[in-house]
Amino acid sequence: MVRKVNTDKRSRAVASYRRHDRSDAISTNTEKLESSLGYVFKDKELLVRALTHSSYINEHKLTRLDCNERLEFLGDAVLELVSSDYLFGIFTQSPEGDLTKKRASMVSEAPLAEHAKKLGLGNWLRLAKGADEGGGRNQPSILSDALESVIGAIYLDGGFSNAKDFIRRHILDESEKNKIITDSKTELQEMVQGRFGIEPEYHLISATGPDHNRVFVSIVKVMGTEMGKGSGRSKKQSEQAAAADAILKYRQSGEDI
User: What is the pTM of this model?
Assistant: First the structure.
């Protein structure tokens, strides 16, 4: 009887630990993360494995096959194919070297880690105690690897179409929305010069508001035709926004600039 009581106490203690153990939250509740991902797994274990870091399996004496390294390998290949196809269809005049640079700017470790943070993947990682306490949930290499692992898991669970849709929504399209942060003017200039041999023209059309809160509005023209319009807190920002607007319009139309 004493042994049974001790066993019951130990079972309750283990159950309580698991409920409060942040390192294993994903194994008991996938719905919230699946909602963030926009994909519901048929095989939940694939998602759990995708978020299992190698440090976790070492600490819990699991096998190497229980961590996300194999899924990361697969997801990396799927991501490279989808992003390459995406860029190949958009930049029809760009040589191989330029396409490689553009792909790296979208799917290298730093941008992937940022996308992983937006999805909240760090909160769901299965990490060893030391890795967790050492800031592993915010470490770019761990986050980017986890995102590639999730891509690999979606590919295995739902096929290429679902993996491609996930990549477009959460990585490639998000990169497009953030183009204003990067140098859209340079990108638009390369596109226009490659096609017409000229440079786009920017025109400031308004500047309103008090000095401490000015709003500038600019347009960009190509061969006299307005192609984009944008606003910002400075003339430079408004021109970047106008360039980004022009690029997105061209891509959404499916036309070559």
Answer: 0.65
